[in-house]
Specification:
Distance between the termini of chain B: 18 Å
Structural class of chain A: mainly alpha
Structural class of chain B: mainly alpha
CATH class of chain B: Mainly Alpha
CATH architecture of chain B: Orthogonal Bundle
Number of strands of chain B: 2
CATH superfamily of chain B: lambda repressor-like DNA-binding domains
Strand content of chain B: 5-15%
Largest interface: A-B, 5 and 12 residues
Strand content of chain A: under 5%
Number of helices of chain A: 4
Oligomer: heterodimer
Order of helices and strands of chain B: EHHHHHEH
Radius of gyration of chain B: 13 Å
Number of helices of chain B: 6
Distance between the termini of chain A: 26 Å
Shape of chain A: elongated
Radius of gyration of chain A: 20 Å
Largest sheet of chain B: 2 strands, antiparallel
Order of helices and strands of chain A: HHHH
Number of strands of chain A: 0
Strand order of the largest sheet of chain B: 1-2
Number of domains of chain A: 1
CATH topology of chain B: 434 Repressor (Amino-terminal Domain)
Chain lengths: 161, 75
Amino acid sequence: MTHTKSRSPSGRRAALALSFGLCYVALAGVLLAAVFLDRLLSRYANLHYPSGWFPHMSRHALVLVLLYLCLAVAAAAIVCLLSLLFHVRSGTIFTAASCSLVTAIAWLVIAEGGLFALVGLTFPLSFGITYVSVTIGLCLLVVRGILKDATRIKEENDQTI
Amino acid sequence: MIVVNLDIMMARRHITLKELSERVGITEPNLSILKNNKAKAIRFSTLDALCRVLDCQPADLIAYTDEETDENQSN
């Protein structure tokens, strides 16, 4: 006979609270980065020369635009993650909406990896972030498939009288 | 297509949905899902309880209809 250990209600609440807290901290970090990005980039990287692709634009401006795009995509992914956590808190996990949110997060994370690949042409260490982002995105796509199956099974079970 | 004739049996036995749900031990919303042919499956235990309360056979409650034949006859 197999026994599955279910988490206690207080443990579940603590885990959810921690997840919410980390999401809000991440969102605050993204907003702070958006405010100080220009200053940080000027301070730690001298990129005031014409970029190869757009001669009328400095490399600094190009990298800044890419990094702001990265921040926007990251903010969108964190907002989707927060929506997913609200679903988890309300107990409506196995729904089409949750599947859509996981899909959205997966593709946003992969897009983030793509954007960091472009930043990597100036800062090669960004390719590391690209690799991690694409890997996480692919894992989330697999999770999406599993969640879709689980939703179908739950729906069938709910409609079994 | 499988059709559930629960409403017909309920009318024959003069029993309301509320009374049936209390006697069978299934909630009214779930019985309503069954009555309106929205259920995907039915447990044997549920079928057993319904047959016992309504004093009927499973064939009185569930029937098979050929959708294509029904459509052709209606046209």
